[in-house]
Every structure is written in structure tokens, then in C-alpha cells.
Amino acid sequence: MSTTILAGIGWHLLGAAFAASFYAPIEKVKKWSWETTWALMGFFSWILLPLSLCYFVLPNFHAFYASIDPKTMWMVALFGAMWGVGNVSYGLTMRHLGISLGVGVAIGVTLVFGTVMPKIVQGNYEDLISTRSGHWNMAGILVALIGIAIVSYAGHQKEMQMGAETQEFHVVLGLALAVMCGIFSSGFNFGLYAAEPIRSAALALGVSPLFARLPCYVLIMGGGAIVNMVYCFSRLAFKKSLSLRADLGQPGGMIAKNTALAAAGGIMWYLQFFFYSWGEAHIPQRLDYVNWMLHMSLYVLCGGIVGLALGEWKGVGKRPVRLLWAGILVIIAAANMVGLGMAS
């Protein structure tokens, strides 16, 4: 396996680590509604950071986007909105299926759907079934799904032992929502494919391949931000138990602390795709479809490790922890299989 491919997997791993950790500071926000916290986090991650970094990356921000076909920009933004719908439905999935099972099914669906469907839509699915590298990569996807299932089952066992099982558990509704969440969340990867002309335009201007994906994020994350902001502020406006005025009426010190925590979570969320871009730049173009698979599977892997590091598994019996480690090892094996596929 070449050092370039290893570097690509390494950058994807770093991005996945930020993805798995971003909620840690958000959980420390006090006396604010989830909607206020999420909207502020989203402002940093989906609006401020994408725009700010592109001002530095692009020679002329306004001229660059003026040169892009409006149809392309609308398509990319609509895929971003599709991802935003998946993001909103995530909470409903957790409510009816539980955290571990919900995450496992949703991530599994978005991994497969987001990895395979863009190639089928483009008519390039032969890469998946007729080449040696495609065989290795498809096998890696299957093994990754097995690993995700094991990690999810371990998490479900942990929830049951710790009495954290959801009170609104409904397997049929929960699975339907998880599948919906997974399909719509894959809109982010569809957006990346649709934004290829934007990435190519950035490269043509001399932007480094490490940063050429960043101008695409402005539109993808912008589309998702609109959906999320509408959801959060409509709930703040119409749900009687919520009040933006009450949240912002807290003492100044608490507002500053909560803002810093939400901002930290937003920065960490954005960094997952910042380093996704770096990982993608090291993966051969003919194997671009493996980037999404690596990100999603490594996200679950890092989520398990972060949970252990934060003591979330403290006091849980040995069997769930062993299952967790087994699932982590299976996902690591899947990443190596994908690496072998890229090297072949």
C-alpha cells in the first residue's frame, strides 16, 4: 500500500475523530434549549467557517462563484438541503430506536447508499463490480457494515444494562426513520459529486488539491443550514416550552461560556470535512467512491473509542465492551481491505 493512500486513510481517520467528538462540548451547554445550541453550532460549522476559509482560499471569492453555472450551484445546494432533512430526522430516529441502534442503522444506510448510488446514477458502476480494486472495496464495505452492526449491538447492550433504553421504543417506526435518515444524510456525498465542476474550477485557478473541495462546502452546508435553521427557529417560535428570549436572557458569563462551547462543537464538526478534503486529495480519482465509505465507517470506529475515553462504558459488563472492541477491529479490517483495493 503506497504512502499516499495511507496518508489519505489517515486524514479520513482524523476527520472522523472530529466528527465523533464534536458533540462533547455541546453536551456541556447549560440552561439553553437544544434548538438554540444547535442553531449556534450550525452557524459556526455550516455558515461562518465555510465562507471565511473560502475567502482565504479563492483568489476572488465573488468572481469565482459568478463563473459557476447557476444550475450546478442550485443542484449542489439542493443536495445539501437533502442532507439537512436527514440531519433533522436524526433526532426522531434516536427517540424511537435508541442511540446505538439508531446510529448503527442510519450510518449503515448512508454508508451504502452514499457510496454506491452516486456511481450507479453516473453510470460508472462497472468500477464496483468488474475490477479487482472494486471487488476489494465492495468487500470492505460489507465488512464495515458487519463491524457497524457489532458496535451498534454492543451499544444497545450497554444502554440496556445502564437503564438508558428509550421509553418510546418502536422498532418499525424507528427503523423506517433510520433508513430515511440514512438516505437523506447521504445527500452530502451526492452534493460532493454534483459539485465536481466547482472543485475543478478551483483547481484550474491554482487552488491546492487539499483545499479545492472547500468552495463546494459553501453550497452544500449552506443548503443544509437553511433546513436546520428553519427547523430550530420554528420550534423556538411556536413550541410553548421553548423560548429564545429565555435562553439569551441568562447571565452574561453563562452566555459567553455556552457560546464558546457551541462554537467549539461547530468548529470540530466542520473540521471533519476539512480533513475529508485532505483525505480525498490522496485517494486516486478512479476510486473516489471509497472516501464516503471510509468517513462513515471510521466515524463509527472513532465514536466507540471516544465513548470509551470519556468513560461512557464505565460500569458496563465485560461482554458489551468485548463486543465493542470486536466491532472496532472489524471496521479496522474493513479500512485495510479498502486500502488493499486502492493499491491493487
Automatic annotation (TrEMBL):
It comes from the Bacteria. The keyword Secreted does not apply. InterPro entries: L-rhamnose-proton_sym_RhaT. The keyword Transmembrane applies. Signal peptide: none annotated. GO terms for molecular function: rhamnose transmembrane transporter activity; symporter activity. This is L-rhamnose:proton symporter. Keywords: Cell inner membrane, Cell membrane, Membrane, Sugar transport, Symport, Transmembrane, Transmembrane helix, Transport. The chain crosses the membrane at residues 6-26, 38-58, 73-90, 97-116, 136-156, 168-190, 210-233, 254-272, 292-311, 323-343. It comes from Candidatus Sulfuritelmatomonas gaucii. GO terms for cellular component: membrane.
